[in-house]
Amino acid sequence: MSLSSTGSPDTTSRRRRPAEHAQDSSSEHDPLLGYSNEQAHDRLCGAQHADSSTPSSQHSLYPATKCTAACACPSHHACEDSWEESQNKRTIRAENEVEANKLVNNYRFGFRKWKSHVTERPFEGRSDVVKELYSELNVIKPHSGPGHFITCGNVAYVLLFGWWVSLAYFLVGTLMFITVTGVPYGKLCWKLCCYFLWPFGNPIHEMGNTLRRCCERAPYCECSMEAEEDNSPFLLPSPTEVPVPEMPDRPLRTPYWRRFVTYVWLLLGYPPLVVVHSLACFISWILVFTIPVFKMNARTLGVILLLPPEDVSISAGSQRKHQGYETRALLCCYHAANWYYYKYTIDGINVFAANLLPLVIVALVTGYIDRENKYASSDVKFTIAIGSIIPLSYYIGMGIASISAQSNFAVGAVVNATFGSITELTFYITALLRGHQQANTCLEEVVKAALTGTLLGCILFIPGICMIIGGLRHSEQRFNSRSAGVSCALLFISIGGVFAPTLFSKAYGNLVCDSCTNSTGANSTSNSSGPFVCHNCHYDLSNGTLFHNHVQPLVYTVCALLPVAYIIGLLFTLKTHSHIYNIHVGEVQGMNHSNESHLTVSSHHGTVVHWSRWRSLVILILATVLTSACADLATEHIQPILSQPNISQYFIGVTVLAMVPEIPEIVNGIQFALQNNISLSLEVGSCIAVQVCMLQIPILVLFNAFYDVGFVLIFSDQHLWASIFSVILVNYIFMDGKCDYFQGTALVVVYLILLAQYYFAPSPAGC
After folding, report:
1. How does pLDDT run across 380-404, given as a tens digit for each residue?
2. Measured between alpha carbons, how far is 352 from 342 in angstroms, rounded to an integer?
3. Pfam families of this UniProt entry (predicted)?
4. pLDDT per residue over 158-176, tens digit each?
5. Contact present, 670 and 466 (Cβ < 8 Å)
6. Whether 56 contacts 20, CB under 8 Å
């Protein structure tokens, strides 16, 4: 797997970045670099202490705030009003026009917020932390001493990789000594045996022409690497180099590919080391945080082991004194692990999503080839199929963002509306079809539980966990209460519309029970008096004309009104009342302050997009097809899990099936919260919940109208009251426009309490 970067990997040459591009390293991967909410509040409330001669550059970073003595807040309420006004004029920066289009098309309420950059970011403008992630291990850097390398990651390297890689080199070196002709390679292997046991701070060099000339003239003397300067570029001969005259007592070197020992090495020594280094590369890449070990093994396998052994020099860190010698380093590793590799991307895709992609192949192979479960059980197949949906949903999101960023708003809106919920809809429709074919009503209840679980997770868990993580870094976070009010209003409309048929059926339906007994234990058919105890009671909608003449028309009416409310909400936030959000994208100097959103970006040229429109479309369609296949496998092998006597089917639906496709969104919300942009974190959950009620459920009802799979929009009491209570609770917390980790803890605790209810709830009828 290639690890290419967009710029030079040399981390020793640091360029001074312009002041307008200076950013905190913690916000390096955040495309939404708005002004800090806490700083904005402090600037407003502390304006009376500000110097009137504040540089204009500070004002340009936040045009809605003027920190002069004349704007001092006369009271606490006036200060809050000023802060609220400033929040309605947030500024979001983008590196180029494509990223700005993505923000405009995806930021507004109603569309999902995908975090990934769709363009390559200039390497020279990145922080030192990110440059370190993408740098190759061929640069020698100053360090304080040998003790500087004794870290937990380096010690873990010795335990996980170092000892067995060194042992492999010792065995291969012994083998090469046995062949006699491979003695030079045997010496090299023994040197590398000691090197890979503790490689940190010890560089490996390729001898340049000057050093090779020195060794050829004095073959029995110790060649000093600092004896003679060689300024020739790495791996390139110097244009002014004088040919070495042929010595009568020492012939010229035989070319590398004309030596017999080369082929002995390639046949006997190199193949086992290929296996060893490939295994080390695989393990270190899967662990993600040990990617430096991957780079070290890959560079050794592809470069060092294919050089003549006399050209490879391994030296201790204390032997480096000559500056010109550094340009000829092949490998120099200082740390085996780096925590920040969670930010690492490959062609715009996060490394975790890329590592999970092979699960799709494993799921398809084990699911469609091993039909008789000879090599894997149904539980394993279900787990792999559900896990494979995670990277596919990430790729779908990246495709949506790429097409939206390179198109106008209309195309972006269509793509978002079409593919935004494709992962969940694919699973729901597949489950309903399989349940209809098998006459299994349990799958319908599982789908309803998954829909309710998505609502509860997006209303309670996603905002709650974002408040907790963001509150631990920032004591108090603020958000636009007006935009949150719009989201809460749409949530009320959504929940009210979706559960209206359920309330209607409870008001007018006939309560039917499977069995009833009185307090004395007699059957219900006896004439004994006393209170009766009934079991498995439910509202019967199949008998009479209540369902066909009253409930079903109500369902169709509600499902027709909910998308209309969704469109009205989009018009409200996109057109008529866009000043509630008033998003400024791009460079803010000279930007006016009208009510409409602005798109002003200075860097239009030189933008490199990761995925083109056609590539994004192909990946989007392919990921959708693969998602359908994985969803089909998951529903095929879910029955053994549903048959577990100790786990309620409700619990499986509201947890695994509901939240697994939303894992990329949870990660997005957490990253926004860490950047003190809690507004986006809260809108991530609200957006998904509204899409579930106003788009996904009407689509399922429409699908059932054309192909009857038995999907009835009637939910159980637990789904009904849990959803209503969640919306009321989150609306109460969003009222003041402030949040902290305590409020987030309250939401998460309530969510866990509801999950406990589902866990101990009896299985639904028909399961």
Report:
1. 898 899 889 888 888 888 888 888 7
2. 7
3. Na_Ca_ex, YccF
4. 999 999 999 999 999 999 9
5. yes
6. no
- Residue 332, pLDDT > 70, answer yes
Give CA–CA dist 137/160, Å, rounded: 20
DSSP 661: G
Average pLDDT over every residue of 426-439: 87
Residues β-bridged to residue 515 = 535
List the one residue out of 543, 472, 445, 551 whose CA is nearest residue 505.
551
Choose among 192, 185, 193: nearest CA to 265: 185
Phi and psi torsions of 193, nearest 5° = -60, -45
Range of weakest confidence among 106-115, 141-150, 483-492:
106-115
Q: Determine the angle formed by the axes of helices 358-368 and 378-405, rounding to 10 degrees.
A: 140
Question: Which residue, among 767, 415, 463, has the nearest Cα to 617 in the 3D structure?
Answer: 415
Phi, psi of 525 (to 5 degrees): -80, -15
Angular region, 511: left φ>0, alpha ψ -120 to 50, beta rest: beta
Q: 585: closest CA among 570, 602, 569?
A: 602
- 599 neighbors 585 (Cβ within 8 angstroms): yes
CA 400/CA 711 separation, integer angstroms:
29
What pLDDT score does 626 carry?
92
Confidence class of residue 582 from pLDDT cuts 50, 70 and 90? low
State the Cα torsion 258-259-265-266 to the nearest 10°.
Answer: 10
pLDDT higher at 267 or 112: 267
**CA 386 to CA 637: how far, in whole Å?**
11
H/E element, 517: strand 515-518
Phi first, then psi, for residue 256 (nearest 5°) are -60, -45
Confidence of residue 68 (pLDDT cuts 50, 70, 90): very low
The 8-class DSSP code of residue 119 comes to: B
Q: Do 141 and 334 contact (CB within 8 A), yes or no? A: yes
For 23, the token pair is: 């950013």
Encoded amino acid at 382, one letter: F
Q: How many residues does the chain have?
A: 767
515-518/538-540 β-pairing = unpaired
In the block, residue with structure tokens 């802060």: 83
CA distances 723 to 443, 701, 707, Å, are: 21, 20, 28
Lowest mean pLDDT across 460-464, 482-486, 520-524, 739-743: 520-524
pLDDT above 60 for 480: yes
Please report where in the chains the tokens 């000043």 appear, as a residue: 579
Contacts of 145 (CB under 8 A, 6+ apart): none
Could you give the CA distance from residue 394 to residue 507 in angstroms, rounded to a whole number?
43
Q: Which of 131, 106, 129 is nearest to 121 (CA)?
A: 131
Q: Are 631 and 643 spatial neighbours (Cβ–Cβ below 8 Å)?
A: no
- Rounded to the nearest angstrom, the gap between the alpha carbon of residue 421 and the centroid of all alpha carbons in its chain is 17
Tokens of 96: 């180029």
Region of residue 110 (left: phi > 0; alpha: psi -120 to 50; beta: else) = left
- Whether the CB-CB separation of 598 and 101 falls below 8 Å is answered with no
Closest alpha carbon to 631 in 329, 356, 314, 367: 367
Q: Which of 553, 550, 552, 569 is nearest to 493 (CA)?
A: 569
The sign of the torsion formed by the CA atoms of 643, 649, 652, 657 equals positive
Q: Which residues contact 22 (CB under 8 A, 6 or more apart)?
A: none
* Distance separating alpha carbons of residues 758 and 767, to the nearest angstrom: 15
Residue 7's pLDDT is 39
pLDDT of residue 13: 39
184 against 508, higher pLDDT: 184
Structure tokens at 388: 């494979």
The pLDDT tens digits of the residues spanning 612-647 come to: 888 988 998 999 899 989 988 888 888 777 777 777
